[in-house]
Design a protein that fits this description.
single chain; about 475 residues; TIM Barrel; eight-stranded mixed β-sheet; 21 strands
Length: about 475
């Protein structure tokens, strides 16, 4: 092969490939990985020294809530994607709820894209469309407009205001699955049984039982299991490709694994917070650790790790779901009243490496697959994202596996700097993040992030390879 001058060379790092970790250089040309070799000669416009560090494929976070348009004061494209970049994430898929209006038709999708154009995204992104009562007729237009897939809730999303995103009834779910199957798309589903959780919550509130423990008890594992069973049955009957989001119980994973063996096209994700915390931690941390499904016991946590290690859990996504601090407080100490969502997008890679590799010995390629390659493959990005391979986008996270630190609010890039992971000790640290060869985060140089933002903004990832520049 004749030598060619690279735009960028990432030199001397321990590179996490699909099936091994090896010391190689990465040559980048025109935003893509052009060469991988033990030592690249020929020079480059820029050399990034990764000696003594590990180089991962950029994380592909398929589950984030950026809340624009309308609720940018919760989190927006700029702060949300800046925090993702600081955590080694280079692509994300934004959920359709919490924005005003929610992304449930082509017009609302265009409003979201306009918000992205106006504010700018630091990393590449795609957008989920929503399935809600009354909008099955809108799904085809959303598919044509380029959504990554569709998202629905089997239990109430929590916001009851006018125009808010609604959970589906069984009829809407079945009809929606039929339509989504005909479009060849994927349905992402929040699987908790509304009849179970609503009745238990009503009983708790009526009895004045409103502590965090009461909230956790109101959303038992059985609510997840019943919803997963129903969803799998409907998907089998309709032929709909299914993705179950933020699974919190190993028994639900086992149901999905059984469905896979029977031939169903279904995948499952869990979240870092289900792998980091147990119920006692939630009670100690308080509202910042409230989510649904809730964080479970140590038994469930360790069983989820085992299923992730053996490949039964397809991938990990943050479910970054922020809100203003005022919504995490209750004057009456009623934990049913506070917003249920965890701010965590910045911590996914560091948590997975610290807890998965350092503490449990899960190989780094397996963890990288769960964070990057598997979501890229599931949502149509295999030809551009998810791995360190020649021809793919040069999306990289350079990580110091020896740089232990304790996370504080000062480290956070969110619109509101709080997180369930505050005071958590991580055993590694993201040093630099590259998007298509350009530095979008450098821990030691705040200025470099600004320079990168001027050079390149995030691209909309759909439809297909003909991306539309948003910056």
């Amino acid at each position: 092969m004749s030598e060619q001058r690279m735009d960028v060379i990432v030199s001397g790092g321990n590179v996490v490939l699909r099936d091994q970790v090896c010391s190689v250089d990465i040559g980048i040309k025109d935003g893509r990985i052009a060469m991988i070799a033990p030592r690249l000669a020929g020079g480059a416009g820029k050399v990034i020294d990764a000696s003594g560090k590990h180089v991962f494929a950029g994380v592909v976070d398929a589950h984030v809530h950026l809340n624009e348009p309308g609720l940018g004061e919760w989190e927006g494209f700029v702060t949300g994607t800046t925090s993702l970049a600081a955590g080694g994430c280079t692509s994300c898929i934004d959920m359709p709820l919490n924005g005003m209006p929610p992304t449930v038709n082509a017009a609302s999708l265009e409003l979201k894209l306009e918000a992205a154009r106006m504010s700018g995204a630091l990393i590449d992104f795609a957008i989920w469309g929503g399935l809600v009562p009354g909008n099955v007729g809108e799904l085809e237009a959303l598919a044509r407009a380029g959504v990554a897939g569709f998202k629905a809730f089997m239990s109430s999303p929590g916001d009851t205001g006018e125009g808010a995103f609604r959970n589906v009834d069984d009829h809407t779910l079945f009809e929606g699955m039929l339509k989504i199957a005909s479009l060849g798309h994927v349905l992402a589903l929040h699987a908790e049984s509304e009849p179970i959780v609503s009745k238990l919550a009503e009983a708790k509130l009526s009895a004045g039982e409103v502590t965090m423990r009461d909230y956790l008890d109101s959303r038992p594992p059985q609510a997840e299991l019943e919803a997963v069973k129903l969803a799998l049955d409907m998907a089998a009957r309709t032929g709909c490709k299914l993705h179950i989001v933020h699974v919190s119980t190993p028994e639900a994973v086992d149901l999905i694994s059984e469905a896979k063996r029977s031939g169903q096209d279904v995948t499952v994700e869990t979240c870092p917070h289900y792998l980091a915390f147990i119920d006692e931690d939630v009670i100690r941390i308080g509202a910042n650790a409230k989510c649904s499904p809730p964080i479970r016991t140590e038994r469930e946590r360790e069983a989820l790790w085992r299923r992730l290690a053996n490949g039964d859990i397809d991938f990990v996504a943050s479910d970054h779901s922020p809100c203003p601090p005022s919504m995490k407080r209750s004057d009456s100490d009623n934990y049913f009243e506070v917003w249920g969502g965890i701010s965590g997008a910045q911590s996914t890679l560091e948590l997975m490496v610290s807890e998965g590799w350092k503490k449990r010995g899960i190989p780094l390629p397996a963890l990288s697959r769960a964070m990057s390659a598997a979501p890229a493959e599931r949502f149509g990005l295999r030809d551009r994202k998810g791995a360190i391979e020649i021809g793919l986008d040069a999306d990289l996270a350079i990580v110091d596996l020896e740089a232990s630190y304790v996370l504080t609010a000062e480290h956070l890039k969110y619109r509101h700097p709080y997180s369930a992971y505050e005071n958590f000790e991580f055993g590694c640290r993201v040093e630099t993040t590259l998007l298509r060869g350009g530095i979008v985060y450098d821990r030691k140089s705040a200025k470099s992030g600004l320079e990168a933002e001027q050079r390149t903004r995030g691209l909309r990832l759909w439809p297909g390879p003909s991306t539309t520049r948003t910056g």
